[in-house]
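Form 7-S
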Amino acid sequence: MIALPRRLCLSFEYELLSQRYQKIRQLEELGFTPYPHKFAFTHTLGEIISRYTGATAEELAAARVGVRVCGRVLTVRRQGRAGFAHLLEGGEKLQIYVRQDAVGYKDFTLYKMLDAGDIIGAEGYLFRTKTNELTVHVERLEFLSKALLAMPEKWHGLQDVEIRYRQRYLDLIANPEVRQVFVTRSKIIAALRRTLEAHGFIEVETPMMQPLYGGAIAKPFRTHHNALDIDLYLRIAPELYLKRLTVGGLDRVYEINRNFRNEGTSFKYNPEFTMLEFYQAYADYRDLMDFSEELLRETAAAARDGETTVQYGEHSIDFKRLARYSMKEAVVEFWPYASTRPKLDDLGDPARVAGLMEAYNRSAEEKIVLPAGASLGESVGLLFEHACESRLIQPTAIYDHPVEVSPLSKNKPDDPAWVERFEIFAAGMELANAYSELNDPQEQRRRFEMASRR
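Output:
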């Protein structure tokens, strides 16, 4: 006997639970196990749909294809001593047909007791109904699990955003297309690993809890280790540990794992997120740019079954190749106001850059605030960030950044005011940040000291 939890005080939920527990007792009286250990199926619903969607009623009748399937009950339509139900499994939906004279009194009584959300197994053969719907003609039913709570009222449209995000299992049930998000993400991660390993990279895991946090500018989450009596921080980036592995001789190393940043949330940012970070010895930022282009192309193709084009909102984004612009070139190319569009030479003149800043602020709603003592490079960087970044819809690499905002990057040999760094953007969002790693300790110290004085 299953005891009813007493802490539930809402009358509707209490009444519903009472009814569901009563059905469990009735199932036990009929000889069914309410929660059996396993069910051996012969086909997934997806396999049946894939193999037999094109089969005619005559072909199915001649072949009499036997199947054992299982799934969650979506709908039940009872019609006297017969009826239909739809099952959901693996993101696919299939109809079953149950007749009392085919399954017997016991199994048909089970069918009459089904609620939306229950999980069942069905054994029978395939046929087509009068409306030509592919259906399992059931010869035996098995009960697999009882749903104690009601499913969403509209199976094809759970709309409450809070419920969808906080109860993803309901979202998956009510909106089967959501399953594709999980499938696509899995394909993306697998493709990243496959491409990295094909190029000789090895995967590692670095500490999640760290005594000192670093590798990015962000506020960390803090916890306490009771046995050691020390505070630790959930990592904001794996960078420092991956660099140590590179120093130790792992020339190509990567990690795909979680990072944690105790900051605001939006559709672009989450306090915990998955990030790929990799390091390659004996290479510069142009090598990394080429490899990043391949990574994006291969990943998109894996997620899209060979296609490299992804639909994002109103934009069709093609990851086949990266457009490439220096930051100065990008300011010229993507400047939003035709009447004040600069020339490339203008961005090397402090007075002209100041004039561009004024022209932008006259036209834009969000003004650029220039820090006191900002350099020419910083000014160009702010122009790019405010005026151009959101306009980078197709995958684009922006290279050669100001040294003042890139303290870990090597200088360009022909212009030390700029560094060998690039960022990749698509749909107006940053996808990647990379650079030729500065490994001169004296120059690194000078950069940090310069930054601390600003």
